[in-house]
Amino acid sequence: MPSRDLVRRDCERRGQELTLDELRQLVVDARASGTSARTVEDIFEEAKKIVRTRNGDLRG
User: Fold this and answer.
1) How many CB atoms lie within 10 A of CB 49?
2) Is the pLDDT of residue 49 over 60?
């Protein structure tokens, strides 16, 4: 997914618009963070746990 699409989705989720300087800083921060050592499967498992917790299902 292109980074601009991720930024747009994040703005929609947060309900606010960002300035051009704020967008530039997001890109700088994202590039500086490097790549993750986690696998896609690890990320999805974490996301599932977050959803279960938010929905009150604490079974793990």
Assistant:
1) 13
2) yes
Structural contact between residues 3 and 27, judged by C-beta atoms closer than 8 angstroms: yes
> Does the structure show a pLDDT above 60 at 60?
no
The sign of the dihedral angle between the CA atoms of 35, 14, 5, 20 is negative
Helix (H, G, I), strand (E, B) or coil at 18: coil
Determine the average pLDDT of the residues in 26-37.
Answer: 90
Between CA 19 and CA 23 the distance in angstroms is 6
**C-alpha torsion angle, residues 38, 14, 56, 60 (rounded to 10):** 0
Percent of the chain past pLDDT 70, that is, above it, reads 88
Q: Distance between CA atoms of 53 and 39, rounded to whole angstroms?
A: 21
Q: Contact 23/7 with Cβ under 8 angstroms?
A: yes
